[in-house]
Amino acid sequence: MARPLILVSNDDGITSRGIFNLVSVMKELGDVLVVAPDGPQSGMGHAITVGDTLRLNESFIFEGVRAYECSGTPADCIKMARHFVLKNDRQPDVVVSGINHGSNTSISVLYSGTMSAAIEGAIEGVPAIGFSLCDYSHKADFSHTGEVVKKIVQQVLEKGLPKGVALNVNIPAKRNEPLKGIRVCRQANAKWVEEFDQRFDPYGRSYFWMTGNFVNFDKAEDNDEWAIANNYVSVVPCQFDLTAHQAIAVLNEEWSILGK
Amino acid sequence: MARPLILVSNDDGITSRGIFNLVSVMKELGDVLVVAPDGPQSGMGHAITVGDTLRLNESFIFEGVRAYECSGTPADCIKMARHFVLKNDRQPDVVVSGINHGSNTSISVLYSGTMSAAIEGAIEGVPAIGFSLCDYSHKADFSHTGEVVKKIVQQVLEKGLPKGVALNVNIPAKRNEPLKGIRVCRQANAKWVEEFDQRFDPYGRSYFWMTGNFVNFDKAEDNDEWAIANNYVSVVPCQFDLTAHQAIAVLNEEWSILGK
C-alpha cells in the first residue's frame, strides 16, 4: 500500500508544541501536509471566515514537510486544504488535529477549534481525529502521547470510521504511572459555569475576563470525564448531525400548530 | 401567570433588522431582555472569547426594552446574560435568537452564530429557539415572519422542550402564496463545496475570498431543505450531545487497541 496522505491542523497555531509533536509522529506513518492557523484559535468552535478575506502562506518550520499557515479558523484550514491546496490532487486519507494544549472532553467539544478541524474532515468524508492533552501548562509533558496517537491513527487507517463520524481523543496529563489503556466513551453530561471578572481600563470603562468552573453532573463510568479521571485515554465518536431524532416524535405529538 | 422573561440575541448584530423584528414580536409575549453582539458575528459557530477581554454596554435602541451590546460572540452573549446581567435575578423562561438574515438549514447549523446562542440557552437548561429567514438580501421582507415566530414561541412557552434540545427554525423567503405550514424535520444531508477566489493586494501578495456552492444529497421529504423548498417553515430539534452513540459499539467491536 502507498503511504497514506495525512492532513494535519490544530487550533493552538502552527508554532505550538502540540502540532510539532503530532507532525513528528505522523511523519512515521505517511506523507504529511500541514495547513494550520497562523496564530491561536482556541475556543473558536466551528467558526468559519465569512465576510472577510483569508491569507494562506507557505511555512518552512517543519523539516521535510509541506506546510501552510492560514489566517483563518481551524475549519477554514481544512476547507482551504481540501478545496484549494489539494483541489485536483489526491485527497487526504486521514485528517488529524492537535495535539491540543488542554482538555476537550464533555461539552468542551462544542467550543473546541481542535475538534472543528476534525469534524470538518468528517463532513468532507475523510476519517478524522482530534487529539487533546489534558494539561494546559505551557511546559506540558507530551512524552506519553506519541505511542497512543500512533496506535489510534494506525487503527483508523486500517479500519476506517463509520460515515459522518470524527473521533474526539483526550489523553490524560502525564502521571507517575503509565496510562491504563484506551476506552471508547460517550460525551459526559457536564458544563461550564462562567464567572465574569469585571475590571476598569485606564479610561474608567469596564471590561471583562470570562472565567469559569467546570461542573460534572455525570456519575457513570462510560463517559470521557470518568476515563480521564481514571488515567484512560478517552475516544468519543462525534457526529455533525445535530438532530435530536427522539424529539421529533415528541414535537409531532404535542404541538398543535403543525401543518401536515 | 406572570409575563415570561424572554432573552433575545442574534449573530447579525444588535442593529440588524432581524433582531428588531424579533424584539417587536417578543414584546407582545413577555418582558424582554436583549444581549446581542455589537457587530456582525455571522459564521462564528459555537465560538467563545477565551484569552481576550469582553465589553458589555447598555443600549437604548429598543424602546422600553432593557438591552446590552456585547463585543463577543453569540455564545458569549448568552453566557454574559445568564451569569452577569441576570446573575442572581430571575432567569429567562425562553431564549430566542435571530431573526437571522439568511438560511441556517442543514449543515449550516454548525457554522451558525444564531444557533450557537440558542444551543447555549439549551446548555443552560432554558428552552431556546433560533429563527432564520431564508433570504440573504438586505431588503428582505420580514412581513410573514411575525405570526410564525409568535406561534412557535407561544407553543414552547406552553409545552416546554425536551431536555437538552434547542429548536432550529427556518422560514422560507416571502413568496406570492402564503406559507403552507410548520413541519418538524431532521437536518438534511447536505454540505457546502467551497471555492477560493484568489486575488492580489496592492503589494502583490495573495488573499482569498471563500465562496461556495450548497450541495444537497438528501432526496427525502422529512428534512429541512425539502420543507423550505416547498414553502413550509422547518423546525429541527437540535442537541449538544455530539456523541455518535451507534458508533460506540462499532469501535468496541472492531478495534484491537482498547484497554478494558
Pair with the biggest interface: A-B, 85 and 84 residues
Quaternary organisation of the protein chains: homodimer
Main sheet: strands, sense, barrel of chain A = 9 strands, mixed
CATH class of chain A: Alpha Beta
Return the string of H and E elements of chain A.
Answer: EHEEEHEHHEHEEEEHEH
What is the number of domains of chain A?
1
Number of E-state strands of chain A: 11
Order of strands in the sheet with most strands of chain A: 3-4-2-1-5-6-7-11-8
The CATH architecture classification of chain A is 3-Layer(aba) Sandwich
Structural class of chain A: alpha/beta
Q: Which value, in Å, is the CA radius of gyration of chain A?
A: 20 Å
- Report, as a whole number of angstroms, the end-to-end distance of chain A: 53 Å
Which fold name fills CATH's third level, the topology of chain A? Stationary-phase Survival Protein Sure Homolog, Chain: A
As a percent range, the share of helical residues of chain A equals 25-40%
Average pLDDT reading of chain A: 96
Beta-strand percentage range of chain A:
25-35%
What are the low-pLDDT stretches of chain A, counting only 5+ consecutive residues below 50? none
CATH superfamily of chain A: Survival protein SurE-like phosphatase/nucleotidase
Shape of chain A: globular
Number of helices of chain A: 7
Write up this protein.
The structure is a homodimer of 260-residue chains. In chain A, a hairpin with a 5-residue loop joins strand 9 (190-200) and strand 10. The first copy, chain A, has one domain: Survival protein SurE-like phosphatase/nucleotidase (Stationary-phase Survival Protein Sure Homolog, Chain: A, 3-Layer(aba) Sandwich). Chain A has helices at 17-29, 74-85, 108-111, 113-123, 145-159, 224-229, 245-254; strands spanning 5-9, 31-37, 56-59, 66-70, 94-101, 128-134, 165-172, 181-184, 190-200, 206-216, 232-239. Chain A starts with a strand and ends in a 6-residue tail after the last helix. Chain A is built from 7 helices and 11 strands. With 260 residues, chain A is α/β, with parallel strands linked by helices. In chain A, helix 1 packs across helix 5 and helix 2 (74-85) packs parallel to helix 4 (113-123). The model of chain A has no long low-confidence stretch (mean pLDDT 96). The first copy, chain A, is 27% helix and 30% strand. In chain A, the strands form 2 sheets. Chain A has a 9-stranded mixed sheet, with helices on both faces. The relative contact order of chain A is 0.14. At the A-B interface, helix 2, helix 3, helix 4, helix 5 and strand 8 of A face helix 2, helix 3, helix 4, helix 5 and strand 8 of B.
